[in-house]
Design goal:
- The chain is of the alpha/beta class.
- The protein folds into three domains: 104 residues, no CATH class; 60 residues, Helix Hairpins (Orthogonal Bundle), CATH 1.10.287; 163 residues, Histidine kinase-like ATPase, C-terminal domain (Heat Shock Protein 90), CATH 3.30.565.
- It contains eight helices and eight strands; from the N terminus they run ααααβαββαββααβββ.
- It has a five-stranded mixed beta sheet with strand order 2-4-5-7-6. A three-stranded mixed beta sheet has the order 3-1-8.
- Helix 3 runs antiparallel to helix 4.
């Protein structure tokens, strides 16, 4: 059986209810008068002026009243159906808009939006649909940007490799150790790029293997500071630290070291000579907080939401040769979230430095892709 449209069903229900409400008193009055159950004076507007006796013939006045009753019935039915149709149309119109929008989004037109209207419930559904479409549009744009960025990052070292190898084959370059070293550097760049992308993909899929152990965090952070101390002194940047020696948490030691390497490397890259980079470790009982604060270039507030995106560079003039692949902070975010924590960034603006804050649970925990010891 073919299903009726919702507006048709609503029209029938509303029209019927309206008709029953309008005609019920008249029908009751007419029946009572016809059956001589109540006096005509109490039978309502459709009662006749006298009480009918059995076998009486309807007078012209009575026939006119019956005709008026029938006309009013038909008129009431038409009015009820009309009002029901208008009301049901107004109710189902937002649903029709949503159906149209869903079809447009299903055909990959992610820019289409609906106008939230109707009752409060329909307005909320419309807003939720628009938010869903906006999120899908943003995700699709990020996917396209990711594909374009990966292709761009791969094209550069591959082009260099291909060109240099072609030059060697044509005897333009000699096959010496210096040339082999340059080719080797490009292969290392490719390997690092692929490994970084694989790490981020594993973390986002909750499949990043972590060797979780409850350890003291201060020695791990101190070892990272010791590694960066020579580079900081060479650039004229002072490294300061304030480490809570009692802070402990369940972490993957090597992954946490990788996170701190990426953050300190980023801070050192953007802090000029004479600047200060401060590393703080604070135990808040339930959570452990790690801050990496620098007095360097700072970040525009409009760029803060995108700092942890893949391949995003706040300085668009910076190339892969001077600034890496643009995956360092994305890796930080992926690893921290795999530990059940959060990472955020704040900055007062250009020239006012930046602060990266990591918060991870102090207690041990387990989840997919993690192994607790």
């Amino acid at each position: 059986m073919k299903a009726r449209k919702l507006w048709v069903q609503l029209s029938m229900v509303i029209g019927g209810a309206f008709l029953l409400t309008l005609m019920m008193p008249a029908v009751i009055g007419f029946i009572y008068w016809h059956m001589d159950v109540i006096p005509a004076s109490e039978a309502g507007p459709f009662a006749l002026e006298h009480t009918r006796e059995e076998g009486d013939i309807l007078t012209e006045s009575e026939e006119n009243r019956i005709a008026a009753f029938m006309l009013l019935t038909v008129f009431g039915a038409l009015v009820g159906i009309g009002i029901g149709s208008w009301f049901s149309r107004s109710l189902t119109s937002p649903l029709n808009d949503l159906v149209k929008a869903a079809n447009r989004v299903g055909s990959h037109d992610l820019s289409y939006r609906v106008e939230p209207r109707g009752s409060q419930e329909f307005v909320e559904v419309g807003r939720a649909f628009n938010q869903m479409a906006a999120d899908l549009d943003q995700a699709e744009q990020l996917r396209r940007n990711l594909v374009a960025d990966v292709a761009h990052e791969l094209r550069h070292p591959l082009t260099l490799l291909q060109g240099n190898l072609r030059a060697i084959l044509d005897d333009v370059y000699e096959m010496d150790k210096g040339e082999i070293a340059r080719l080797y550097d490009q292969t290392r760049h490719l390997t690092r790029l692929v490994e970084d992308l694989h790490l981020i993909s594993q973390a986002e899929a909750h499949q990043l293997p972590l060797d979780m152990q409850r350890v003291a965090l201060a020695p791990i952070l101190q070892s990272v500071i010791d590694v960066f101390e020579p580079a900081a002194q060479e650039k004229g940047v002072r490294l300061a630290c304030d480490l809570d020696q009692n802070a402990c948490a369940a972490v993957d030691r090597s992954r946490l070291t990788q996170v701190m390497h990426n953050l300190l490397s980023n801070a050192l890259r953007h802090t000029p000579a004479g600047g200060v980079i401060t590393l703080r470790l604070v135990d808040h009982l339930d959570t452990i907080q790690i801050d990496v604060v620098d007095s360097g270039e700072g970040i525009e507030k409009a760029q803060l939401p995108y700092v942890f995106d893949r391949f995003y560079r706040t300085d668009h003039a910076r190339t892969r040769d001077t600034g890496g692949t643009g995956l360092g902070l994305a890796i930080v975010k992926a690893i921290v979230e795999a530990h059940g924590g959060t990472v955020s960034v704040s900055s007062e603006g250009i020239g006012k430095g930046a602060a990266f804050t990591i918060q991870i649970p102090a207690g041990s925990h387990s989840s997919r892709g993690r192994r607790i010891q």
